[in-house]
């Protein structure tokens, strides 16, 4: 039974991962750092330990990452000037459905809480999430399950009755570690052999999550 839905944010609710890749590539080019596209893709959702590994082969990667993280919100608002223009396909339809069905939902992200709130406010429609959880609160980042378990605790919902929506490998693995239902909604990554066993269900857009929920016992 699905009693609550937990959203990742970057690349799932808003088109921020494609934006981040564009910004990261621009700064690499400006600084004449010859990192291939595979490295740029690896930077999405990359923690500081992994960045240090790439730094050994591509000096300047760490500084580039710090710059992009520092300036990403101003870049976000310059790239997505109109409210709603950053929304991923089906976001509004799914949120409206959850509100109509009175299914509580939360956001669990590695982004800073203030950045999450600003992006949500820029969606162009009301997103009435019940809980916002950020790894910047000192919660271990995905693929550790902690952020999802903490979100379920704040929602007062048993983890096994939560549905996680994710576009990342680390997020899908974290959902499995939390013993939650999950749906992979592809954005910038193609699942590798390590990720594939953790994928329970795939939907091509957030709108496609609605039929999945309609087929759940809790929705009857």
TrEMBL record:
Any single Pfam family the record assigns to this protein: HAD_2
Q: Which organism is it from?
A: Faecalicoccus pleomorphus
Q: PANTHER family from the entry?
A: 2-DEOXYGLUCOSE-6-PHOSPHATE PHOSPHATASE 2, PSEUDOURIDINE-5'-PHOSPHATASE
What's the protein called, per UniProt? HAD family phosphatase
Listed InterPro entries: HAD-like_sf, HAD-SF_hydro_IA, HAD_2, HAD_sf, PGP-like_dom2
């Amino acid at each position: 039974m699905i009693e609550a839905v937990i959203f990742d944010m970057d690349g799932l609710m808003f088109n921020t991962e494609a934006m981040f890749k564009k910004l990261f590539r621009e700064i690499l080019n400006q600084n004449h750092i010859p990192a291939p596209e595979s490295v740029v893709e690896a930077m999405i959702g990359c923690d500081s330990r992994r960045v240090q590994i790439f730094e050994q082969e591509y000096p300047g990667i760490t500084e580039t990452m710090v710059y992009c993280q520092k300036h990403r919100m101003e870049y976000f608002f310059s790239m997505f000037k109109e409210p709603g223009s950053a929304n991923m396909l089906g976001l509004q339809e799914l949120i409206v459905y959850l509100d109509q069905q009175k299914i509580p939902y939360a956001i669990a992200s590695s982004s800073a809480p203030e950045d999450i709130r600003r992006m949500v406010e820029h969606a162009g429609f009301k997103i009435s999430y019940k809980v916002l959880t950020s790894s910047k609160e000192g919660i271990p980042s995905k693929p550790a399950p902690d952020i999802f378990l903490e979100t379920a605790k704040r929602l007062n919902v048993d983890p096994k009755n939560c549905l996680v929506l994710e576009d990342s490998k680390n997020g899908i693995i974290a959902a499995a570690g939390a013993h939650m239902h999950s749906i992979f909604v592809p954005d910038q990554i193609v699942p590798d052999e390590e990720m594939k066993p953790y994928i329970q269900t795939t939907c091509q857009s957030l709108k496609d999550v609605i039929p999945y929920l309609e087929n759940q016992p809790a929705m009857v």
